[in-house]
Write a structure and sequence with these properties.
Among the domains are: 131 residues, Tetratricopeptide repeat domain (Serine Threonine Protein Phosphatase 5, Tetratricopeptide repeat, Alpha Horseshoe); 55 residues, no CATH class; 71 residues, no CATH class. The chain has 25 helices and no strands. The longest helix is centred in the C-terminal third of the chain and has 14 residues. The model has no long low-confidence stretch (mean pLDDT 94).
Length: 441
C-alpha cells in the first residue's frame, strides 16, 4: 500500500472532458462505434471485420435482441477467412457457453490459436482463464504475463486487467500506485474502463481519501469516452444511492438505459429492477422481464437468481419450476456461491427437479464454506437437527455464529436457542471454531 498523497498526485492529471478522444486503433472496435446500419452493410458484403463487429453487437444486445446463435455463425465465417479476432471470439463463446457447450479447454485452445496470430484480445482471454483458474490451474504469474503481452501489442484494455491484479494483490504485492498508473494510462487512451477504475478508487477510498464527488466526476469523463457503458452504469448507481450527487431515481434510470443500450448487463439488471418496482419510472413488468432476461442471458448472476426466484414464487410471472431450476443452475454453473445456495435449495425442495437431499446439502456446504451467510445459517440449522448431515450442536453453533457475523437476520435467534441447551465448554469450542474459520473464496 502507498500513501494517499502519492496516489492523489498521480491521479490529479486525468484528461479534461474537452480533450479529443484518441482514435481507436482496433478496426473492429472502431467499426462498432459507427451506426449499426454501417456495420450491417459491411457484414452483408462478407467483410470479416464487419462480421466480427456485428457478431459482437448481437452478443450483447447492441443490435437488437441478443442472438448468440447468429453471432456464432458470423464468427465461424470470419474465422474460416483467417480473422484472428473471430477465432478469439469463438474462444469467448466456448468460455461463456453461448450457442455452444461451455468448454474452458476449447476456449483456451481457440485463444491460443488467435494469440499466435497476434490477436491481443485473445491474449487477454488466456490471462483471464489463468487468473480465474477456469479449465486450468489458477496462475496469477501466467495471467500477468499474458496481460503484459496484450499491452505490448497495443491492446487498449490490457492496462485495466493489469491494474486489477495490483489492486487486488493477485500474484503481486498489493500496490495501489501501480494499479492507478495502469488505470490512468487506460483513461489517457480514451478508455472508459480506465475512468471507471479510477473512479472506483475514490468511491471506495482505496489508497486515496474517499471522495464520492470525485468518483462521479471521473465516471462522467468515462461516459464521454470509448466504451462508456460501465461509467454510465456507475453514474446511475451514484444517482440511485445519492453518492456524490443528490439522490435522483429518475436520473438513475436514464443512465441505466443508456448503459444497457451499450450492452452493460449490470445496467440491464438495475433497469429491470427499477421497472419492476416502479422506482424512478412507471412500473412496467413486461419491459422489466425483457431486460432481466437479457442480463441473465449475458451471464449476470444476480439476474439469473432473480429470474429463478420470480419463477419459483410466481412474482409477476406464472409459477414455472422448470424455469426456476434452469436459472438457478445457470448461476451455480458459473461457480457463484449465491447460485450454489439457490440451486441447493431447489434440489432440497424439489423445485423443477426431483428432491435430492444429498445434492442439495453438498451445494449448501460449498456455498457455506465460501462464506455465504444464508448457506451458513441453513447448514447450522441442519447440523442441529441432523438433516442430511451429522447431528452436532458444536458444528451447528459454529455455522450460526458465522451467519450472524455475515448479517443473516434469522441466525441470532438460532444461536440463542442452541446455546440454551449447550455446556459452556461446547459454546467456547464452537466460538473458537467460528473464529478460526477461513472462507475458501
Amino acid at each position: 500500500m502507498i500513501g494517499a498523497f502519492l496516489l492523489m498526485a498521480m491521479l490529479a492529471a486525468e484528461p479534461a472532458p474537452s480533450k479529443p478522444l484518441p482514435p481507436l486503433k482496433d478496426p473492429v472496435e472502431a467499426l462498432e462505434e459507427r451506426p449499426l446500419a454501417e456495420v450491417q452493410a459491411l457484414a452483408g458484403k462478407g467483410d470479416p471485420i464487419g462480421e466480427v463487429a456485428l457478431a459482437d453487437m448481437l452478443n450483447d444486445g447492441r443490435a437488437g435482441d441478443i442472438d448468440h446463435a447468429r453471432a456464432l455463425a458470423l464468427f465461424q465465417k470470419a474465422a474460416a477467412a483467417g480473422n484472428a479476432d473471430a477465432i478469439g471470439d469463438l474462444g469467448f463463446m466456448s468460455q461463456m457457453g453461448w450457442a455452444v457447450p461451455q468448454d474452458y479447454a476449447a476456449a483456451m485452445a481457440q485463444y491460443r490459436k488467435a494469440a499466435d496470430m497476434g490477436g491481443s484480445d485473445a491474449m487477454l482471454g488466456i490471462g483471464y482463464l489463468y487468473q480465474r483458474g477456469l479449465g486450468c490451474a489458477l496462475d496469477y504469474a501466467q495471467a500477468m504475463a499474458w496481460y503484459q503481452k496484450a499491452l505490448a501489442a497495443g491492446n487498449i484494455h490490457a492496462g485495466d486487467f493489469i491494474g486489477n491484479l495490483y489492486a487486488g494483490g493477485h500474484g503481486v504485492a498489493e500496490d495501489d500506485a501501480k494499479a492507478g498508473t495502469f488505470y490512468q494510462a487506460s483513461a489517457n487512451a480514451g478508455n472508459g474502463f480506465g475512468y471507471e477504475n479510477l473512479g472506483s478508487l475514490y468511491a471506495h477510498g482505496t489508497g486515496v481519501p474517499k471522495d464520492a464527488a470525485k468518483a462521479v466526476a471521473l465516471y462522467r469523463l468515462g461516459a464521454s469516452a470509448h466504451f462508456p457503458g460501465g461509467p454510465m452504469y456507475l453514474l446511475g448507481s451514484a444517482y440511485a444511492s445519492g453518492s456524490g450527487v443528490d439522490k435522483d431515481d429518475a436520473q438513475a434510470v436514464q443512465w441505466y438505459r443508456r448503459s444497457a443500450a451499450l450492452g452493460s448487463r449490470d445496467a440491464m439488471y438495475a433497469l429491470a429492477v427499477d421497472l419492476e418496482k416502479g422506482r424512478g419510472v412507471d412500473l412496467d413488468l413486461e419491459t422489466s422481464r425483457a431486460w432481466m432476461l437479457k442480463s441473465a442471458d449475458l451471464g449476470y448472476v444476480s439476474a439469473q437468481i432473480h429470474l429463478g426466484n420470480m419463477y419459483a414464487q410466481g412474482n409477476g410471472v406464472p409459477i414455472d419450476a422448470a424455469q426456476a431450476f434452469k436459472w438457478y443452475k445457470a448461476a451455480s454453473d458459473q461457480n457463484d456461491k449465491y447460485g450454489q445456495y439457490a440451486l441447493g435449495r431447489a434440489y432440497m425442495d424439489g423445485i423443477g427437479t426431483p428432491v435430492d437431499l444429498a445434492k442439495g446439502i453438498a451445494l449448501i456446504q460449498v456455498s457455506a464454506q465460501r462464506g455465504y451467510y444464508a448457506a451458513q445459517n441453513m447448514l447450522g440449522v441442519y447440523s442441529f437437527s441432523g438433516t442430511g448431515v451429522a447431528k452436532d450442536k458444536v458444528t451447528a453453533l459454529k455455522w450460526l455464529i458465522l451467519a450472524v457475523d455475515g448479517g443473516d437476520k434469522y441466525a441470532p435467534s438460532g444461536v440463542t436457542n442452541i446455546e440454551a441447551g449447550m455446556s459452556a465448554d461446547d459454546i467456547t469450542k464452537a466460538k473458537a471454531e467460528a473464529s478460526a474459520f477461513k472462507s475458501t473464496d
